[in-house]
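Complex record, three chains
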Amino acid sequence: MSKIAITFGEMTTESFRCVTKAYQNVHHFAMTPISNITDSDMEEDFDDEERSYDRSSDSMFVGGSDGDHEDDDCRSITSNMSNMKESKDKSSTKENDISSPTLSEAEMDSKSKKKRFTKSRTRARSPTVVVRIRKNRRLKANDRERNRMHMLNKALEKLRKVLPAFPDDTKLTKIETLRFAHNYIWALSETVKMFDTNNVSSLITGSSATVSDAISLSSLKPSDFLPLNSPASVETYKPPTPYSSTISSSASPPNWDSETKPKLDITCNGTDSSDTTSRSGSESSFLML
DNA sequence: TAGGCCATCTGGTCCT
DNA sequence: AGGACCAGATGGCCTA
């Protein structure tokens, strides 16, 4: 049985189960995680196969799977088949180039040198081998892509952890997490801005207040950072009112889809934002992105 | 059952 | 040539 190497990075049991299931659905073979199988292992495997091919016919089967019919289960069958056909044509062309019966000895000699050189660079491979190599590359690419997405999810999970938690422990979806973070960062910047501008520290402890003091003073809740259309925000959303201040609608979180940076405009009762004494007016709102 | 979310596969493109 | 990144497609799971 020829081995099919699929390497995994760090993987949870659950994700491995999903992957296994997916692979079994698509490729119909039992999968075992194999770590650190090298390309040379692969090549070795294919070399064995190629040697076998040289000795036998085109129609040999290799491996514990469905052999050449594995791709029949793949979705992009037409594309694969056209690629296979293309590679088959190419390989057959190469093979034709190698064996020319009407050559002089000198020509044969130079040709054999050329042949040796050619073979060392681009070996003539049977269509079966070409398909298998192509399949192997695809599997490796799938593996990389899977790991890449896992890394992305890990980063997203880290982001979730640094965001304010919800009492009901609702797990934010990906898009909610990103929007939440976006609004949260915006709110923090606004808070810091106000903290600096209004010298809030003096309102708290006199001189050594921290930014988190200012944030807690603002009474912002996690739900305040959720976009309005978030399912998690339906019950709990309430526009934040930091320091009972008025943040004009133009000071809503910047829309990250927009090309231009939004201008943040904090107004205080129609006065300059440096006015620290009286803040009232319409409620601010962390608008949806 | 429809719709949302997610994981995965896949081929194309760009970069090193 | 091979890897990273991306977007589209697909199917599974869950919930209203």
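Note: The first helix of chain A runs from residue 13 to 27.
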